[in-house]
Amino acid sequence: MRRFASALAAVASFVSVAQAEPIPLGTAPEAAEAKTPPNPCSQEVAASLQKLRKSSWFRMTSNMITENGPSTMEVDYILPDRMHQKVTNTVTKASSEIILIGREAWSRRGEGSWTPMPANVAGQLQTQVEESVLVEQKDIGSYACNGKTKVDGHDVMSYKLESQPAKGESFRNQTYRVFYVDAMTGLPYSNALLVPGRDDKPIFKTTYAFPLDLKIEPPKDIAAPAPAAAPPASPAPAPGAASDTGK
To answer: What does the CA dihedral 46, 48, 52, 55 come to, rounded to 10 degrees?
Structure first.
């Protein structure tokens, strides 16, 4: 079960990359919109995310630092209910995968056989994907327009997520998020977490792609589910104990 809990945590992390900052708890979207004048830069980011949600398929490739070292996570989506995630440790090359189709899910480690995931876990995975990828957020945060630039040789529009420093902190030691939109298609191109002065070495980076040959099918090499454990045998009565017949 710990493995399944880890899988859920991984999904929660990667699907949140497709979104921006969630609206603060207890704040009604209508009230926030009434008090804050429209931000054209944030509206452009929201329009790009909305265009992504309306895509039939896309791929997210993330490079990040985890507790086990640097890792790459590749996630394919065929909307509305198909997902294939693969996480690979950059150093050890150890990998784990999850396939989700509707309310069925399978997992495996390395090149081993696929194992069906419990129905309740598969249902939680599906719910997380729906809420994080398909559902539109009312407030994505405040973005500033940074103009047109190039990322990996690609023409993009750059947007910086604005935030206030916490008490005792300054902007100098804070990371910041930059969202890049394809200048031609208007679709998301990349999403990066940067450290001031080291813009070329992001702590976290996700790149979006739209492969024409992307497919997600149920795995073929599925291991048979483990047999149900037999009920424990009744303990033998203690010497001299009376039987339950009363005789």
So the answer is: 120
Spatial strand order of the sheet with 82-89 comes to: 115-116, 104-109, 95-101, 82-89, 69-78, 57-66, 204-209, 188-194, 176-182, 154-161, 143-151
Share of the chain above pLDDT 90, in %: 55
pLDDT digits (tens, 9 = 90+) for 7-52: 444 443 333 333 333 222 233 333 334 455 678 999 999 999 999 9
Is 178 in a helix, a strand, or coil?
strand
Q: Residues 204-207: contacts with CB within 8 Å, 24+ apart? A: 204/62, 204/63, 204/64, 204/65, 205/62, 205/63, 205/64, 206/17, 206/60, 206/61, 206/62, 207/60, 207/61, 207/62, 207/152
